[in-house]
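Thread amino acids onto this structure.
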């Protein structure tokens, strides 16, 4: 589309240079680029749950009679259900269209153009996305070689314009945890601290019980990963009551859809099943790690989430990903200034690990001649 109707002049200046989110190519569009049929592609690129959702969710959705009605804008049932699951008061809970929506709402709540938000890099990409839309400035506090955060660097990065500090725990894409005492030292500075616990069910570590003591702590969770509901878009946050109140006011009224509410209801009735899958993924993560470690051209990093980051030695991460994809295995490729020549592999079922490792061995032989 070209032409100068003059309309673009009216776009907010802060958005003209905004990059947007570069989504990976949808599977359906890869036809012709693969050596295997689409149905047999193994998706290990988006930290999705290889076991799917609870069968109770599928059953309930088939007979769902609420599709023609608007969901409860006040999220009462949802908040009660999540209170039961987390032990945190319903008045401190706000749900969103994925937890990404809550990240976005927090930026809209706190960040005016030019305000600063501190992130530790490498970090989850959505932080940059939401900062960009608000014309907020992301201030980067680099992680160390093993991807541990640098508390002193974070504290030193605080300025008069700092509105929020984001800590992804375990961190995506690196997989490692930050010690609770480090998070609390950062929280002691008094600014809003968002701890993104998207992988809590895999790591088992949370700061949620400390929210009473630290009234600036906020915790983000999601049903996307452990409960296999990524496609229905349902996440939630635990907030100080004041912040929860504002978020409820500024969110779009029906941000969580009826199907997602049904899915939460059924998932929480099927915790034994879902947590069994989580345990299987954790066990498989450890096996995948030890298999990856045996490959000379990869350096995997220990993970407490459902994925493993690997440094690709010899600088061939891009080529490696392409070869894997051609053979029907998708992994995530990183080539950013802070993560050059890395891949992130989501943990699949045991048979996925077997196929992946076989493919990697073969590619390793090809690359090394
Ligand atoms: C996957 C993920 C999320 C959750 O995204 P949803 O919008 O809930 O699907 C949030 N934070 C991090 C760090 C993630 O990796």
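Threaded sequence (369 positions):
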């Amino acid at each position: 589309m070209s032409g100068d109707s003059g309309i673009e002049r009216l776009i907010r200046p802060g958005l003209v240079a905004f990059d947007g989110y570069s989504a990976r190519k949808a599977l359906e569009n890869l036809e012709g680029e693969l050596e295997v049929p689409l149905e047999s592609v193994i998706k290990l690129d988006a930290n999705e749950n290889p076991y799917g959702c609870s069968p109770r969710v599928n059953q309930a959705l088939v007979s769902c009679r609420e599709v023609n009605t608007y969901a409860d804008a006040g999220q009462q049932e949802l908040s009660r259900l999540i209170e039961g699951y987390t032990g945190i008061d319903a008045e401190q809970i706000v749900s969103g269209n994925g937890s990404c929506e809550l990240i976005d709402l927090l930026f809209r709540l706190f960040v005016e153009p030019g305000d600063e938000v501190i992130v530790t890099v490498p970090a989850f990409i959505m932080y940059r996305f939401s900062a960009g839309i608000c014309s907020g400035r992301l201030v980067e506090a680099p992680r160390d070689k093993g991807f541990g955060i640098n508390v002193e660097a974070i504290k030193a990065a605080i300025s008069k314009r700092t509105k929020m500090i984001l800590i992804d725990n375990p961190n995506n894409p690196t997989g490692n945890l930050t010690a609770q005492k480090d998070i609390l030292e950062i929280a002691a500075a008094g600014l809003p601290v968002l701890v993104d616990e998207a992988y809590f069910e895999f790591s088992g570590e949370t700061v949620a019980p400390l929210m009473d003591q630290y009234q600036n702590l906020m915790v983000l969770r999601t049903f996307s990963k452990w409960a296999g509901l990524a496609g229905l878009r349902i996440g939630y946050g635990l907030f100080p009551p004041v912040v929860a109140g504002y978020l409820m006011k500024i969110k779009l009224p029906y941000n969580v859809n009826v199907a997602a509410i049904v899915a939460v209801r059924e998932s929480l009735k099927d915790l034994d099943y879902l947590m069994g899958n989580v345990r299987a993924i954790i066990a498989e993560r450890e096996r995948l790690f030890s298999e990856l470690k045996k490959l000379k051209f990869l350096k995997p990093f220990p993970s407490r989430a459902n994925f493993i980051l690997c440094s690709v030695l010899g600088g061939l991460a891009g080529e490696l990903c392409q070869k894997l994809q051609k053979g029907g295995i998708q992994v995530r490729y990183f080539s950013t200034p802070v993560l050059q020549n890395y891949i992130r592999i989501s943990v699949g079922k045991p048979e996925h690990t077997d196929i992946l490792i076989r493919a990697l061995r073969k590619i390793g032989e090809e690359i090394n001649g």
